[in-house]
Structures are given as C-alpha cells and as structure tokens.
Amino acid sequence: MTRTYGAYGGRYVPETLIPALDELEQAWAVLCKDDGFRAELHELLTTYAGRPTPLTRADRFAPDKRVYLKREDLLHTGAHKLNNALGQAVVARRLGKRRIVAETGAGQHGVATATVCARFGLECVVYMGTEDMRRQAPNVARMRLLGAEVRPVEFGTKTLKEATSEAIRDWIANVETTYYLIGSCVGPAPYPELVRELQRVIGREARDQILAAEERLPEAVVACVGGGSNAIGIFYDFIDDPDVRLVGVEAAGAASLGAGRAGVLHGARSSLLADDDGQILDAHSISAGLDYPGVGPEHAFLRDSERARYVTATDDEALAAFHRLCSTEGIVPALESSHALARALDLDAELILVCLSGRGDKDLETVSPQSGETVSDR
Amino acid sequence: MKKLVIYLMAGPETPRLAEAAVEAGADIVEFGFPFSDPLADGPVIRRAGERALAQGMRTGRCLECLAETRALVDVPLVPMTYASLLDAYGWERFEREARAAGATSMIIVDLPADERPELRRVQLVAPTSTDERLRLAAENTDGWLYLVTVTGTTGARAELAPTLAPLAERVRTVTTVPLYAGFGISTPEHARAAAELVDGVAVGTRAVEVAEQGPAALAEYVASLRSALDAAVAV
Questions:
Q1: Which residue of A has its CA nearest to B133?
Q2: B115 in contact with chain A, both atoms CB, cutoff 8 A
Q3: Residue A151: in which H helix or E strand, if any?
Q4: pLDDT tens digits along A90-149
Q5: Which among A286, A324, B12, B30 would be 20 to 30 A from B197, CA to CA?
C-alpha cells in the first residue's frame, strides 16, 4: 500500500483512528487481490450499477474536435460516486461494520452511499452542510427516501469542508462499530489509494472504448477536480502513456492545486487553500461538489511531477458549457462535470476524452433553464 | 501528588487566566493554538477556536501570548494544536520558537506517533490503541503520556469513561512514564475518580467555558479540581 505520494498523503488523524486505518489497510491489501471480492464487485457493477458505461461522441458540442464523453452520468444514481460507494460497502461488510457514515457536498456521494446502504441493509448517516442542503435539495430528498439520516452541519462554511469534519468526528466517537465511507480520493491513508482503485474502472473502460472507436489513444483526458476521484479514476490507466495529456479542471474559486499551498486537512497532507498560518480558507464555487479547499494528495503529486496539468474554469464558463451540452447533445451534465466540458472546448487538442462524471438533474434549481442565469442567493 | 493540567485557548486574556489557574493549583497549562478545522474537538473548543481566530490569534500572536504567560507563571506551558499550523510555520521553526517563548514540549492532536517521529512531543494514546501502538507512543513521548479517556472528541461527559481503567492498566504494563488522562473530565468527581487510575488529569472543555467568566471563576473551578485530586487515594 502507498501511504504517501511524494511529500503528500500520510495519516494526520487522532490516534483513536489509527487502529481502524490499520485494519482497513490490511483488509484492503488482501481483498484487492481476492478473486471472490473482485467477482462480487464486478457482479454488482454490472448487474446493479450499470457498467460498463458508454462512450459518446459529442460532435455537435465540439464540431471542430473529436470529443468523447465517458458517460458516468448514466451510472445508477447518476454519478461516478457509486463505483466507490459499492466497493467500500463491500469492504465494510467484510469488516463486519453495520453502520456507515459519510459526508456529502453536491449530494451525489450521499445518494450513492444511501443507495448501497439500502441495498445491503446497513445503517446510514450522511453529514451535509446546510448551504449544500439548500442548493442540492433534490439529493437530500433522495437520501431520505433511501432510508439515510441526513444530519445538517450548520457551522463554518456550511459546505463540504465542515460536513467532512463532522463525519470524521462521528467516526472518532463510533469507530468500533462504524465504517467511514469517504467520498473522494482524500483523507488519511489508505483512503486515497482505496478510492482510486475503485474509480480506476472509469479509465480502464474508457481506454478500451476509445481504442476500439479510434484505434489510437486520446491526445488529452480531461476531468473536473474537487477532491479528485473521477479525475484520478479516469487518469490512472493513462499515466504510463506519455503522449496522453492529463488535464484536471478545478473551479476557479476552489483551485486547491492551482492556487493552493501545502498543508494538512482531513487527515492528509496535500495542496490546500490555506493562509500563511495554515488556517484553511473558504472555497467558492457554484458547484457544490467542487466547493472544497482540499484535493487528493495524489493529484498534488501529479501536479508537482508535471504528469498532469491543472487548470480552472469559472462559474460562468461552467454554466455556458452546461447549457451547450444540454442544447447540442441532449445531455444534462452536472455542474461539476461542466467545468471539464468548458476546458475541453478550448483545449489545444483534437481527440479528447472527457469524464462526464455526473448528471445535472440536481442542479436545476441553481441553473435557470430559461435565462441561463444563476438563481443562487450567495 | 496528582498533577492537574488545565487547557486554555490562546487569547488576549490567557496570561491572566493562566496565572489564576496556576495560583489555584494547576501544575501544567495546555495552551491551545486555534485551528480552523479541529477534528478532535467537540463544539465548545471548536467555538473557542473560532473566536480566538476572529481575535487574530494566529501562530505568531499565539507565540507572543505564550511568552507573556511565561512571564507570569513558573509551571510547564504546553502548546496544543494541529499539524497544519506547524506545516505552515515550519516544523523546526515552530519547535524552536515555541521553546524560546517558554514552551515545555507540545501536543499535536492529529500527529500520531509514527508521523514525524523526530518532533519531540507529548504523545496521545486512546482506548482503541493496540499494545504495539501504546509501546510506540510511550517510547517516543516527551515527559508524560496523554491518555484519551474516551473513544470520541473533546467535551464534557456525564460520567468518567469506563474505557480509562482498562487503558491505564494496559499502558502501565508497557511503560513507567507518568500518565495523565484527558477528554471528558469536567467535574471534581471525575477528576478524583480518574486520579485513582493515573498520575494526573487534563481538563479542557469545562475550563474553557469557565474561563469565559474571568480569572476569579476559573480560579474557583481549578481549586475545586485541586481539592478533589489532593483527596484522591494514591495508586
């Protein structure tokens, strides 16, 4: 197992959690090579989640390019988050844990977690900032419908950062009975690696699919980056292909990689939005899933090693790409994924693979379909 | 004699508060450097941290406040904070400047014994720690070992956690360093019960609450803990 990625990663958590992290690390080391586990997960991904997801060429969206969309929006629950939630739920069951806690920002991870908990009969508690509950109300309703308890987090930024802190505090208090189902490739080791391995299926499939369609690899792979799990998932199987550019797109107001500095948050050392004293700063994005001041440690490493490049898209650019995909292809993308779409359009490359990480039904309250203006009162 | 450790969040009033606590019988003062995202803390200390940050208690100002406190009291002052502050300030620079300001060791709540072992600090152990981890923490700790009484975050509880006794027993088999217990100890009764198991107690949340009422209230509260400890049966 990898605990660090260059100067990043590690396990910066209270001692109380270390034995649980050791237990998870040891279990994962066995399970990831276990045929029974892999078969169980494959069966779930195929017959329950809907994998493989298709690759869709988007000629009207990008007429002067060959843009392919990896359709994670078509996965059950509407986003790539289910790949991770299913895998970790199977791990939790093998560990004998019957109670699951999770954090959620946009609500996609919360919905995915509530879904797998319903499927497996596990107790589910999801922490969510009240600001995010307001702007992603449909997902709050979905989680409750699925039997999850959604606990509002009313302090600080009232978004994903505080929801994550509260989920970790719950885990500290209940670590002997509870599994923490983290939603992105962040947190203390072994979570960043665990989540990456569970999301790698995106890139593995997409690589085969684009080779089948084009008989060559893409010039660039583009994905949005909040915590970075869809990005690491689609990037990973292209890392050893030096001619394939890897481009992560952050929200301009939450550019942990583009505008961040090294620091420690939520159990890992990574690149963060923080001030000179190491106090974490607020992120700002129209997209709740990207509204997070940290990022997975492996992305910080890929940035420093220059294997991946990280750029930004503004709220307005993401909204424009959102509307363009709706009207040109009949696909409603998540606002998160719309950041990747925005940069794919002006990227200096012809054959481009974009991770369409989720669908945008949850964002209709934020995006007015009539005018394209934001209804947000922020 | 059992040791009494009192936690105070750094702030403009802290030197006077620390002086009052020491006069009333505190043997050690933990000096909280606030962090924006304190994972191990319950609501009371989290809110105290938010207030301190709003008052401008950043690392440099906290170090000045520590030095001002040092001028008033003779007991060990132990900065207690999170890794992010040291990472930003520079790990060695923080250690050096804290010492120069009068600190005795430090406690970094989210830095388990196997991360950055070269940094001298008081290590924490928890009811969930394996015997192997108890040994690792004991071998690396600086002066005394901090026993987290509960599986949970900081904050007052109705009863002393039943997990402390078995933890103390396990730790005694691997080390002879002094053991001080904290998290969830808020009343003289808790303090007295804990003192029968360990060499000292650390009181944070309730001390932070009482400190908001000023030095006199804090002194009265600390004196009540002191009396309870002095009445405790020696182990």
A1: A19
A2: yes
A3: strand A149-153
A4: 999 999 999 999 999 989 999 999 999 999 999 999 999 999 999 899 999 999 999 999
A5: B30
